[in-house]
């Protein structure tokens, strides 16, 4: 890779340009040179790469399948909205060289925070080492500090430099640089905590570690076994491990590990009861999944489905329309969005529906059912064949639906009638997602249509019967009120509501809405006015138990942070069990009246924000700019619990800011609360800039001294950036 490789960069069937790609000496950036012009420029940074896919795994490469074999093709997928890079190597060997090489380079991001920290400093070292001699003089060290968000007094920096320069050569190299880095990252607050429990101030004995785990971390089960496990796992000294003691370095590594995280590691895996009916779960859901940009002129792509599924999404939208040559296409009807073949969408869903979850959110196998909305509906087994009609009912428990794909859609008449025998045709079809599509359906019902959407004669036009007969489980129906829905009592039906209609129902009949969602599925979708693919807050919909709250996954922000935060638990399977009072058909709960919830009274959440570690710079900031970080803690839940508080800002220190501030919140319905930690760069003249965030359900919080490993705006890890906090929960 460092020698360079001539490959084809492809954007379409006709756009195929030869480029000379080369990995730079820093092992962090890839440059390319145009064969025609000879111009050299940066192609991408390793830190921007999410994953590498082999073969024909993009629309462009699929269109070139007959021209180029899969073993020469690969796709580089980037974080955020940046488009994929499709490349064709000259040989299968060259392709493998780049595929395996890139995977090796991006692998360190999955290391523990402590190890990631060393990877991080190595990368900065290589950037600051201007003359590439593997040594660093004091001027280069000053440059390094600026790059790392550190505004350090020059005299203090020089003192650290001289202490580390054991060879007195005026430069740092090898072990000297490690010494400098350890002095730079000295955590006084962690040292103080360590010494509070260490009798000699140098180590924690097994019993001292047990005391810390019980008194501060509130670990009350198998504490001695846990202490032994932590020493074996995180103590770097072999001698200390043999003596069953933990050094200060080992103590810090534990605090930075998954066991020292604010997120309960036991809740990262599948931990909830999966034997409940489908309507008893919140389901990770996306809107117009095929779009990766706006709703009017945006690009439709199978990439939207791949990204949503890898993010843990279990409910996807497939808008099917008649296409050329009788082949259906998927796009946002009556807009200028591009179209993709329905065949490619189905192929993509088959391939990715049950793959392993996103490691940045917690690994978990997507064995659980995936719900797909569109104009075709059926229940499909993992072998791709349809299940028998009526094989699944609304009371079917989630456990029985593993490895199944449930498709919902419109239907002529009742499912029960179809199973009993033929019936007269009827126009009982559901609401569509927005006004434009609903109007088109009405137009079609009046004048008829063809093929994929409708079929009929001059006298009577209906949905195509063959299409309708596919619907088994989730029949779309118009919502005409809670009383009518209850009188019909058909849990096999599902209604889709706009965010505005849902808000009105929450306002006017909160308890009825909660009861309705104990036995029937409800889907919420964004307003048609959100042409920019913005999102509404899903929290108010979850507060009344709506299961399928569809969001635009392509748009980063607080709304998607809440979605990721809720579904990052339970093995990232995309299903989260609703609390007991939202599964009881006779419940009295109303989110506007917290007192209606049965159970213990409110609890108090106390958060001491202690410090921050190696916070990232604001994107597109000026060279040499250093952030002034503050921390805001937000509570998202029922209206009575909605709150936020923030710390003061720390001037010119994104490397190791220290706040030591205590924030306190009262939670009336903790079962529905999400806690969002946001770091911002304070600006007194304009809006603060986003630095990082982490969101989790209150139920997943571990008390005690904990690290919060921050995520970027699009929900990806940014190691080793973190916050150090102390959590206390009391009644």
UniProtKB/TrEMBL annotation:
Q: Does the keyword Repeat apply?
A: yes
Q: Where is the C2 domain?
A: 583-712
Region (Disordered) spans which residues? 417-455
Matching entries from Pfam families are given as:
C2, EF-hand_5, EF-hand_like, PH, PI-PLC-X, PI-PLC-Y
Where would you find this protein in the cell? Cytoplasm; Endoplasmic reticulum; Membrane; Nucleus
Q: Has UniProt tagged this entry with the keyword Calcium? A: yes
Q: What is this protein called?
A: Phosphoinositide phospholipase C
Q: Which organism is it from?
A: Semnornis frantzii
Upper lineage ranks? Eukaryota, Metazoa, Chordata, Craniata, Vertebrata
Gene designation = Plcd4
């Amino acid at each position: 890779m460092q020698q360079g490789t001539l490959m084809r960069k492809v954007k379409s069937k006709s756009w195929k340009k030869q480029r000379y790609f080369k990995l730079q000496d820093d092992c962090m950036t890839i440059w390319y040179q145009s064969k025609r012009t000879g111009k050299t420029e940066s192609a991408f940074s390793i830190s921007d790469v999410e994953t590498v896919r082999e073969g024909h795994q993009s629309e462009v490469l699929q269109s070139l399948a007959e021209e180029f074999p899969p073993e020469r093709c690969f796709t580089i997928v980037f974080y955020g909205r940046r488009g994929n890079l499709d490349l064709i190597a000259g040989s299968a060997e060259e392709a493998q060289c780049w595929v395996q090489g890139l995977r090796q380079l991006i692998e360190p991001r999955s290391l523990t925070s402590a190890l990631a920290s060393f990877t991080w400093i190595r990368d900065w070292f290589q950037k600051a080492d201007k003359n590439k001699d593997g040594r660093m003089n004091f001027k280069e060290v000053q440059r390094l500090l600026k790059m790392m968000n550190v505004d350090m007094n020059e005299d203090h920096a020089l003192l650290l430099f001289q202490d580390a320069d054991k060879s007195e050569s005026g430069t740092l190299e090898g072990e000297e640089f490690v010494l400098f880095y350890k002095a730079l990252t000295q955590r006084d607050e962690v040292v103080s905590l360590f010494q509070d429990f260490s009798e000699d101030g140098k180590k924690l004995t097994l019993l001292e570690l047990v005391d810390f785990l019980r008194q501060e971390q509130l670990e009350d089960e198998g504490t001695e076994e846990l202490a032994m496990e932590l020493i074996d796992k995180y103590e770097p000294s072999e001698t200390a491990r043999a003596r069953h003691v933990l050094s200060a370095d080992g103590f810090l590594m534990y605090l930075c590990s998954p066991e020292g995280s604010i997120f309960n590691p036991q809740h990262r895996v599948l931990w909830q009861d999966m034997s409940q009916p489908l309507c008893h779960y919140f389901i990770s859901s996306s809107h117009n999944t095929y779009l990766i940009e706006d709703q009017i002129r945006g690009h439709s792509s199978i990439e939207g489905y791949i990204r949503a599924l890898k993010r843990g999404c279990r409910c996807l939208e497939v808008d099917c329309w008649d296409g050329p040559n009788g082949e259906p296409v998927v796009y946002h009807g009556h807009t200028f969005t591009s179209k993709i073949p329905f065949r490619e969408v189905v192929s993509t869903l088959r391939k990715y529906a049950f793959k392993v979850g996103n490691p940045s959110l917690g690994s978990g196998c997507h064995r659980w059912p995936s719900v797909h909305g569109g104009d075709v509906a059926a229940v499909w087994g993992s072998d791709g064949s349809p299940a028998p009609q009526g094989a699944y009912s609304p009371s079917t428990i989630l456990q029985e639906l593993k490895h199944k794909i449930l498709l919902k859609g419109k239907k002529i008449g009742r499912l029960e009638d179809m199973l009993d025998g033929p019936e007269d045709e009827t126009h009982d079809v559901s609401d569509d997602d927005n006004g434009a599509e609903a109007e088109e359906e009405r137009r079609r019902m009046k004048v008829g249509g063809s093929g994929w959407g409708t079929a009929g004669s001059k006298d009577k036009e209906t949905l195509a019967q063959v299409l309708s007969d596919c619907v088994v489980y989730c029949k779309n129906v118009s919502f005409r009120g809670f009383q009518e829905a209850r009188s019909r009592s058909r849990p096999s039906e599902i209604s889709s509501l706009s965010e505005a209609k849902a808000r009105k129902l929450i306002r006017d009949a909160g308890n009825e809405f909660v009861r309705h969602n104990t036995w029937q599925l409800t889907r919420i979708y964004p307003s048609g006015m959100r042409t920019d693919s913005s999102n509404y807050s899903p929290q108010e919909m979850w507060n009344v138990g709506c299961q399928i709250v569809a969001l635009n996954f392509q748009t980063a922000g607080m709304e998607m942070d809440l979605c990721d935060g809720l579904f990052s638990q339970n093995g990232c399977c995309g299903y989260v069990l609703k609390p007991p009072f939202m599964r009881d058909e006779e419940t009295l709960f109303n989110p506007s009246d917290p007192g209606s919830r049965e159970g213990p009274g409110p609890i108090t959440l106390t958060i001491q924000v202690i410090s921050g570690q190696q916070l990232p710079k604001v994107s597109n900031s000026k060279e040499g700019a250093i952030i002034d970080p503050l921390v805001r803690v937000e509570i998202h839940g029922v209206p009575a619990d909605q709150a936020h508080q923030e710390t003061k800002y720390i001037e010119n220190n994104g490397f190791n800011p220290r706040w030591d501030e205590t924030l306190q919140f009262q939670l009336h319905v903790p079962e529905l609360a999400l806690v969002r930690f946001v770091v911002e760069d304070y600006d007194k003249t304009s809006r603060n800039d986003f630095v990082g965030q982490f969101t989790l359900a209150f139920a997943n919080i571990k008390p005690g001294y904990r690290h919060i490993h921050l995520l970027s705006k699009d929900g990806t890890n940014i190691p080793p950036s973190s916050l150090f906090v102390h959590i206390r929960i009391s009644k």
